[in-house]
Design a protein that fits this description.
Structural class: alpha/beta
Strand order of the largest sheet: 6-5-4-7-8
Strand content: 15-25%
Radius of gyration: 22 Å
Distance between the termini: 28 Å
Length: about 325
């Protein structure tokens, strides 16, 4: 069943989600799009316990928490505030920083705003999403700025900046969907793992001349390597061999600096996920809010201490 219609204007949003009850009804519709079913007796009739954020089965009286097992699990923050945070985060292409969110929503603590945004970021990746397909441009980039005392752009030892890989669909001269991931190195196994996880076999992959991209044909991709002009020549106007990927990288760098003034290396992957989430829904920013809540209700809650230390991100760097 389709989710309930989403407000198309700010005024509609203010009217539709003005109360806790309205937010709970919308969240329930996203969590149970086919209607409530009691997990104990399978009865479909239930009534709401608004103040407790629970639904109670009309037959066996079993209670089900509306937010249990979701990113909103055990939250003390009103749902109206959560909805406003999601709205601000998804409808502005620049996103929103924790400091700005704290000011906009009159939150007493910066940490509350920071945690809300990070919980949303961890709900932005749909694990069942379709891989990129067709013609794909792939490029890598350093995130974190230049660093003195290093010889050559490929030197890894002593780097404070993080290495990321970017893949973008080509749709004529326009950009389609994107994928981004933090990676530990330029090894062929690392790059191939990212492509296998994010790109459909048989797709045509355009890259620069980096030797680590060899072996893509054996892995089931059509590979078109091209020699990238020197960086100095690119600055003078030479055309990139992966222009759409380079444009996405440029937009990413400007966004990280402009909105967040830089981010920590440990948390970088979820910021890449946020950029990709908004990029892939840039033509339907209002629907992105609805998608975020829908995805969020399918993600298990992450405790504060694990988010704070980025412990939940200590996994394979190409899984994002």
């Amino acid at each position: 069943m389709p989710r309930p219609p989403f407000p198309k204007t700010l005024r509609e949003f203010q009217s539709k989600f003005a109360s806790e009850e309205a937010c709970q009804q919308y969240l329930a519709a996203c969590r149970w799009p086919d209607g409530f079913t009691c997990p104990r007796c399978s009865q479909r009739r239930a009534y709401e316990l608004i103040k407790q954020r629970r639904w109670q089965c009309a037959a066996c009286r079993h209670q089900v928490s509306l937010t249990a097992g979701t990113i909103l699990h055990n939250t003390k923050t009103p749902l109206t505030v959560w909805f406003w945070a999601a709205y601000l985060m998804t409808t502005d292409k620049r996103g929103v920083s924790a400091l700005l969110l704290q000011r906009q929503l009159a939150l007493s603590r910066y940490e509350t705003a920071w945690m809300m945004l990070h919980k949303f970021r961890r709900a932005m990746v749909n694990l069942a999403r379709e891989p990129l397909q067709g013609e794909i441009e792939v490029d890598d980039t350093w995130i974190g700025g230049a660093q003195t005392g290093l010889r050559g752009s490929r030197q890894l030892k002593g780097r404070k900046a993080a290495l990321a890989i970017v893949a973008v669909e080509k749709r004529g001269s326009a950009t389609g969907r994107a994928r981004m991931a933090v990676i530990p190195d330029f090894k062929a196994t690392t790059l191939l793992a990212f492509l296998k996880h994010n790109v459909e076999p048989g797709s045509t992959v355009y890259t620069d001349g980096l030797k680590s991209f060899t072996g893509l044909r054996e892995a089931g991709f059509e590979h078109v390597p091209r020699i990238q002009p020197l960086r100095a020549d690119l600055r003078k106007g030479a055309k990139s061999v992966v222009p759409l990927a380079d444009r996405a990288i440029g937009n990413l760098q400007q966004w990280l600096i402009g909105t967040y003034h830089g981010v920590s290396r440990d948390q970088l992957q979820v910021y890449l996920d946020e950029f990709v989430f908004r990029h892939n829904r840039r033509r339907q920013p209002m629907a992105a809010f609805q998608t975020l809540l829908g995805l969020g209700t399918g993600h298990k809650p992450t405790p504060y201490n694990r988010i704070r230390g980025a412990e939940d991100l200590a996994k394979s760097p190409v899984d994002g």
